[in-house]
């Protein structure tokens, strides 16, 4: 065997009971053990301070010389469970802020930057915390909001838009045609009324019954964290998010029957962008801007009033002990 004489150079005896199989692993392990045990190569113990190792000292020295606005990558393994939990909660706060002030449904490329910026903002002492587990937990924050909106819309959409027909009538063709109509020219954002044995839509946008109910029930009565970031009574991002939820829910019936769609950015991004473009155009017109602003203020006032009433009713039924 070619490697066995090399083992005997260091005076290492053959281990008893080891078969002469010639496997490389049997030969390579003793060689490493002999080199590690040589007295001429000092091996630091686990308790040895990092500063005693020249390489670590160099890294530490260079880290101290970083500019004040630089970030140092660390892991959350150094944090306690409570501090890690607080870090995640604070990062969620910044994600919700981004959804209300920047984009409620960002592109796939921008999503990663938003999450990392949220972690950086939540981390103290100007340190950037990178941990796959934390990133994974934060990556579902936006999807959870979309799923909440979709689930609410799905419960009411057939009744609010007249998709359900009386028993004995064929619904598939009716749903297919009606959904196609609602998804054209933003008809689903308009109030739909049943007159003269048929459904008609009124011209004003964002007046649909389900749209108003979704915004008030899901966000105000649910006291969603997004509400903490409303600025100047502006609900543009919230409007586009709610509209996208209704659009996707209707699209699940486009074949005449229900087919569930994922809450992925790829599916929700398109209707969101369309509605945001629509809102942007409205904001360019002073008259339409005044109408949109008034509508949003009325929804905010109604939502907060209903929440106060619900809290008072709950307090009467379940009084808080002093």
UniProtKB/TrEMBL annotation:
Residue numbers spanned by region Disordered: 1-25
Report the residue ranges that make up the DUF6532 domain in this protein.
Answer: 92-281
Query: By its UniProt entry, which InterPro entries does this protein fall under?
Result: DUF6532
- What is the name listed in the Swiss-Prot or TrEMBL entry for this protein? DUF6532 domain-containing protein
Q: What is the species of this protein?
A: Boletus reticuloceps
């Amino acid at each position: 065997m070619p490697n066995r004489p090399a083992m005997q150079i260091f005076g290492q005896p053959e281990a008893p009971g080891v078969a002469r199989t010639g496997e490389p692993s049997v030969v390579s392990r003793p060689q490493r053990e002999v080199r590690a045990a040589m007295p001429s190569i000092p091996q630091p113990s686990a308790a040895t301070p990092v500063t005693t190792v020249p390489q670590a000292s160099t890294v530490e020295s260079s880290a101290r010389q970083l500019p004040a606005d630089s970030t140092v990558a660390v892991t959350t393994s150094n944090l306690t469970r409570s501090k890690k939990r607080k870090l995640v909660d604070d990062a969620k706060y910044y994600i919700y802020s981004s959804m209300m002030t920047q984009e409620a449904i960002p592109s796939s490329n921008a999503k990663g930057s938003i999450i990392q910026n949220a972690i950086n903002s939540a981390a103290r002492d100007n340190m950037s915390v990178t941990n796959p587990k934390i990133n994974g937990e934060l990556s579902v924050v936006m999807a959870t909001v979309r799923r909440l909106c979709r689930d609410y819309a799905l419960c009411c959409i057939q009744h609010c838009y007249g998709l359900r027909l009386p028993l004995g009538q064929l619904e598939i063709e009716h749903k297919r045609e009606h959904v196609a109509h609602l998804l054209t020219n933003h008809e689903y954002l308009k109030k739909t009324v049943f007159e003269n044995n048929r459904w008609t839509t009124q011209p004003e946008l964002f007046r649909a019954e389900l749209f108003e109910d979704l915004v008030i029930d899901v966000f105000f009565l649910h006291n969603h964290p997004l509400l903490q970031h409303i600025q100047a009574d502006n609900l543009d991002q919230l409007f586009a998010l709610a509209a996208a939820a209704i659009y996707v829910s209707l699209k699940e019936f486009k074949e005449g029957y229900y087919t569930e769609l994922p809450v992925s950015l790829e599916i929700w991004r398109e209707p969101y962008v369309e509605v945001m473009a629509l809102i942007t155009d409205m904001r360019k017109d002073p008259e339409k801007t005044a109408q949109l602003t008034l509508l949003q203020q009325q929804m905010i006032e109604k939502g907060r009033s209903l929440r106060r009433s619900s809290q008072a009713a709950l307090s009467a039924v379940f009084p808080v002990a002093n």
